[in-house]
C-alpha cells in the first residue's frame, strides 16, 4: 500500500518535498498539505487535502506519515505531536530552535520506546558523501585523521547574523562530519575574518580526528560544498561537481549553482525515498532525533563560546553532551 | 491511479526494470512478469503475477503497460502485440532483429494512428547526455560541426562477432548522435584495426556534421563512454564520470565500472519514470519506433557495406531510409 | 666552450629563438642574426653581429651552428648551405616548400654521410608528449591501436587556404603521430565540414594503428591541442593544460591561449637546449631531415588526393615514400 | 661574461645545483665545488675546481657567486663569509640554524648596505605558485581572506622529530604564504593528531587573512603540495599536478612522486636562472635574508609555543619580529 504523507509548510522546501512525494517517490503519495497561507497550500496540494491546522493534519486519519517543513521555531512542537500520534516524521533541520527543545524530543522518543523522527540532513544521502563514507568504511585510506570541509554560499541573506553561519550553515558540517567519521565532536575552535565571514572552525573528535571547516557565507562566485577525508594511508574527496565541461571564450569551465538546491536535488530525492521505504517497513533512516539534538547542541555551544570573543577568534571550546540513550546505540 | 506494468523477460535487464517498477518509480507498480524460466520469473515477481506466455501477459486485464526485455529476436512480435492491444510498451533495444521487422512496427503504429512504442535507448535520459543536448540547443557553442564519441567495453563476450560491435554496441552511438544533433546520418565509413576491434566509424549527417566514433569491444581497462560535441564557437563534453577522487598508493584515481550497468543506472531509472509519466498522460517519450527502425537500419546498412572489405576499412557507405511518416514529425 | 649560434630570420619565431639562445640556453650564445629588415635584425641582435645576407651568416667564422627561421620558401636553400658548410642547423618546419626539395636535403645529407639537420617539430620536446611516448614505450597500455589527435586554432589568418590546414597545421600531427607511435603512415582519408573546416583525417600506419585527427582552424574558443593514445590494455592522454583553476563568476575554469606560443613555450626551450647539447656533442636530436621530408611528402600527397573531391571527403589516399636511407635507420 | 659559480656541499641538493649550473642555466657555469668528502666533490665537479675548505672557495678568485648547500648548521657561517667577500650567494633554506643567527646575517647585510643573500625557497619560482600570486595581484578574486595549504610527505625520515615538521617542512608554507599574500603572520595555533602527525596550523596575518595548513609527514600515498587562495570574489588553486592521465586496470589515474624533487624540478631550475640573471645584473631575487630570518623565527616561535602543550593543541601563539630594516622595504 502506498504511504499517505502529509507535508506541513509549503515554502521552498515544503513545496519541493510535496513534489517529490507526488512525482518522484515510489510507494508513497502526497495525501495532505498544510500552510498558514491557504493559497500557497492549495498550489502545492494539486489535489491533495489542504489543512490550515498542522496538528489536525498530523492527527488526520488520511495521513500516515508527516514531513515538517514549517518555520524552524515550530519544528519541535510538530515533531512531538507526531510522536504523540505514533507517526513517522521527516523534520527539516533543525530539529528544534534550541538544544533544550531538541532534548525534549529525544526524551519523548525514548519514553515512547521507538524511533519515529528523522531529521532532514539530506547530505547523508548525497551520492558523493555516501561514496566517501563507503570508502572510509572500506578502509583503504586507513584510519581517518583529518577532514577538510568547505561550505560556501554565494551570498548570505540580509537577515543573516554571524551566529547563523554556525546555526544555519555550519550545522550541516557538524552532522555530516559526525556521520562520515562515525565520531563525536569534543571541542571546537573558531578563527574568523573581520566581520565574521568567512570563518574557519577546527574541531577534534572523540577519536582524535581533526575536522577543519571553512564556512563562507558570501563567497560570491557560487554555492560550493567540498570535503576531503584524510586517512593514514590515503585520501578520498569529492570530484568536481559537474557532468559536463565547456570550452568557450578562451576557457574550459563548468558552472556552480547559486544555491544549495541544484547541488542537493538528488540527495533530497534519495532521502525522501529512503524515508518512505523505512516508514513502510516500520524502521527509520537518516539522522535521528539524537543526531538532530547533538547538532543543535554543538552549534549552540560554539555560538556561546564565540560570544566572549566577538566574531570568532575564541579559544578552544569544550563540547559536552548528556549520555546517549540506548535507543540510539 | 498507479500504472500496472508487466515485464516480459527477467534476465539481467528485465529484472532491473522489474526492480525499478517495484521500488524506484512513482506512479507505477510491477503488476506481472513473464519468463520462459518460471523460477527466474518468480524471483523477479516478488508478489506480482507470473506469466509463462508473453502474449497472455500483454493481453491481461491486470496489465496496462508492458516492458519488453526478452531475447532480441522476440522484440518485434511482442511490440506488435502491444500495438494490437493498444498498450504502451517500453521495448529494450533493438526494436527488432532486422530493419524490415522494425519497419513493420512503424507501419503498424502508423496504421493505428498513435504512438505507443518507446525503444529503450536509455542514454537519452543520462544526465550527462541531456546536459550536452541542452547546451547544444542553448546555442552558446554555435552550430555543431563534429561529434566525437568513444564507446569502450572492458571485454566482449565470447559469442561476439565483428558485426555485433555495430549492431549491438555502436547502435547506441547511432541513436544518441541523432538525438544529440537532431540530425539524420547519411553516410558512414569504417576503419578497423586488425581483427575488427577497435573500429573507428565516421558518419556525416544531413546537416553536414561529422560524427566520429571509436567502438572498442575489448578495451580491457573498463567500461567507458565519452562524447564531445564541437560547435563553431565552442565545445561541450562529458566530465570525468565520477563523484569521488582517491589519493592512494602513489596515484590519484577514480574507478571505471566493468560494464554499462553502473554507468547508466540513473539513466535507466529516469527512463522508466519518464515512460511511466508519459504513459499515464497518454503520451510517449524517448526513442520512438521510427528511431528504433532507423537505428537498426543504419547498423544493418553499415554491416552490409563493411562486408566486402572484411573487417571494416570499407569505402564510404551511403545510408538511405524510407520517408519519415508524419506520425514521427 | 659556448656554441656560437646564428639565427636567420627575426620574425616571431626567429626572435623567440634568438631570445632563447641569449637568455635561456646553457652552453650556447647568440652570435649573429640575419634579416631582410635591418631594424628588426638589430632589435633581435641585442649586441650580436647583424647580417643581411643569410649565406654570409652561414659561412661566417663567427657562427658554429644555425637556426633557420626565415620564410618557408627559403628553408631548403639555407639548409643545403648549412650542409655545405658542415654546420648543424635547426630548421623551422617545414624543411622545404615541396617534398622534392625536402628530398634534395635528405640526399645531400646522405652524400655528406652525417646528419646535421634538425627540423623544428618542437612538440617532440613538449613534456606532455614526451610523457605519453614514454608511457607507450613502457608498455603498460599494451600495443597501440588508435591515436586521437585534436588540433584547434582560435582563428585562421585571412590568407589561409584549405590546403594550408594540411600543410601548415596538420603536419604537426603527421610528425608527432609518427614519433609517438614509431610508425609510418600508409594511407589517409579526409572528411571535411562544408568550407573545409574542421576536417577529420583518418590515417593508418604500417603497424595497422589508426590515427584520427580533428583539424579545426577556426575553433573560436582558443588554441587547444590534445592527444589520447589507445592501447590494447589502456590509454594515456594529455591532462588539462593548466597549472591553476579559478572559481569565479559562477564557474570553475582555466584558460586557453589564443595561439600556440604559450602552449609550447617550454617545448621550444627544451628543443633549443637539446639541439645545442647535441650540436656540442657532435650529434643530432629531434626530427631529422628524413622526418621533415616524410612529413612534407605526406601532407603533399593528402592535398593532392583531396583535390579531386574539392574540400575533403575524398576516398582513401595511399601514401608512398622512397626507401629510408640507412643514415636515418 | 658567464658567471663563475661555486657550490658548497655536494649532497642531493648541492649536486643538483651543480648540475643546473653546468647544463641548464644560461649565463653561468660551474666553476668550483667544495665538500668534506673529496670523492663526492670530484663526482659533482666534472672538471670544475674542487675545494675542501668552503671559506677558500668563497674567497677564491675563480668564484664570483656562491651556492650554499652544506649542512644546515653551517649556512650562517658561509652566508656571512659571502657577505664579507661581497659575493652573491644562494643559500639553501634555512638561512641559519637559529633565528638569532639569521638576524646576524640580516644585520651584516644591513651594515654592508646592499643585499647579496638569496634563501632557496624555490617554491617562489614554481609556475603554479607564480600563477596563483599573479592571479591574486590581478585582483579578480578580490581581497584574499583565506589560504588553504596542504603539505604531505610520503614518509618522514626516522630521525624526524615533531618539531622538525615545523622547522623543516612547514617553513615552506610560512615563506610561500607570506609571499603569496604579501602579508606578515601575527599569530599561529596548532592542532595536532596523536603523535603530532598530521598537524593543522592556523595562522592570521597582519591583514587579518587566515592561513590554514595541513602538514602531514607520513601521508603514505606520496608527496603532495596543494594550495587554494580564497578571495572575497573567488578562488584560485593548483590544478592536478600532472601532464598526463592514464586509463588502466579499472581506473583513471595520474601519479604522485615519492618526494619533492620531481614536483619542484622546474622551480629549482627557474630559481637558479633567476638568481644568476640577478647576480649578473647586480641585483637580487627570491627570498631575502630578511625573509629567511622571519621564516626561521616564525618556526622557532611556533615550536616554543607548542612546547608547553606537548605535540601541538596549544593555544594561539602571538608572533613578533624586530622592525623590518629599510634595506628590505
Provide the fold topology.
The structure is a homotetramer of 329-residue chains.
Chain A: E1 3-8, H1 12-23, E2 28-34, H2 38-45, E3 49-51, H3 54-59, E4 65-68, H4 75-85, E5 89-91, H5 99-112, E6 117-119, H6 127-138, E7 144-152, H7 162-181, E8 185-192, E9 199-205, E10 210-216, E11 224-231, E12 234-238, E13 244-248, E14 251-255, H8 260-280, E15 287-288, H9 289-307, E16 317-318
Parallel strand pairs in A: 1-2, 1-4, 2-3, 4-5, 5-6, 7-10
Antiparallel strand pairs in A: 6-15, 7-11, 8-9, 8-16, 9-10, 11-12, 13-14
Helix pairs in contact in A: 4-5, 5-9, 6-7, 7-9
Write a compact overview of the structure shown.
Four copies of one chain form a homotetramer. By secondary structure, chain A is an alpha/beta fold.
Amino acid at each position: 500500500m502506498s504511504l499517505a504523507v502529509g507535508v506541513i509548510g509549503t515554502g521552498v522546501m515544503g513545496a519541493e518535498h510535496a513534489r517529490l512525494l507526488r512525482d518522484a517517490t515510489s510507494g508513497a503519495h502526497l495525501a495532505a498539505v498544510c500552510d498558514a497561507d491557504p493559497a500557497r497550500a492549495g498550489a502545492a496540494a494539486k489535489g491533495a487535502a489542504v489543512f490550515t491546522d498542522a496538528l489536525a493534519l498530523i492527527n488526520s486519519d488520511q495521513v500516515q506519515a508527516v514531513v515538517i517543513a514549517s518555520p524552524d521555531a515550530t519544528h519541535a512542537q510538530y515533531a512531538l505531536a507526531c510522536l504523540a500520534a505514533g507517526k513517522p516524521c521527516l523534520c527539516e533541520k533543525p530539529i528544534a530552535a534550541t538544544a533544550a527543545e531538541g532534548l525534549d524530543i529525544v526524551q519523548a522518543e525514548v519514553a515512547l520506546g521507538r524511533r519515529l523522527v528523522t531529521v532532514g540532513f539530506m547530505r547523508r544521502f548525497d551520492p558523493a558523501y555516501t561514496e566517501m563514507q563507503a570508502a572510509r568504511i572500506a578502509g583503504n585510506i586507513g584510519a581517518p585523521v583529518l577532514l577538510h570541509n568547505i561550505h560556501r554560499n554565494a551570498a548570505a541573506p540580509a537577515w543573516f547574523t554571524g551566529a547563523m553561519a554556525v546555526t544555519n550553515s555550519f550545522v550541516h558540517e557538524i552532522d555530516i562530519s559526525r556521520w562520515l567519521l562515525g565520531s563525536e565532536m569534543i571541542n571546537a575552535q573558531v578563527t574568523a575574518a573581520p566581520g565574521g565571514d568567512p570563518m574557519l572552525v577546527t574541531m577534534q573528535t572523540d577519536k582524535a580526528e581533526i575536522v577543519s571547516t571553512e564556512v563562507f557565507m558570501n563567497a560570491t562566485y557560487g554555492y560550493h560544498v567540498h570535503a576531503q577525508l584524510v586517512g593514514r594511508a590515503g585520501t578520498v574527496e569529492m570530484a568536481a561537481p559537474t557532468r559536463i565541461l565547456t570550452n568557450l571564450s578562451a576557457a574550459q569551465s563548468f558552472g556552480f549553482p547559486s544555491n544549495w538546491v541544484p547541488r542537493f536535488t538528488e540527495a533530497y530525492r534519495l532521502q525522501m525515498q529512503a524515508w518512505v521505504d523505512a516508514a513502510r517497513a516500520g524502521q527509520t533512516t537518516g539522522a535521528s532525533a539524537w543526531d538532530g539534538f547533538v547538532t543543535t547542541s554543538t552549534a549552540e555551544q560554539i555560538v556561546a563560546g564565540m560570544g566572549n570573543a566577538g566574531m570568532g577568534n575564541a579559544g578552544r571550546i569544550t563540547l559536552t553532551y548528556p549520555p546517549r540513550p540506548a535507543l540510539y546505540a
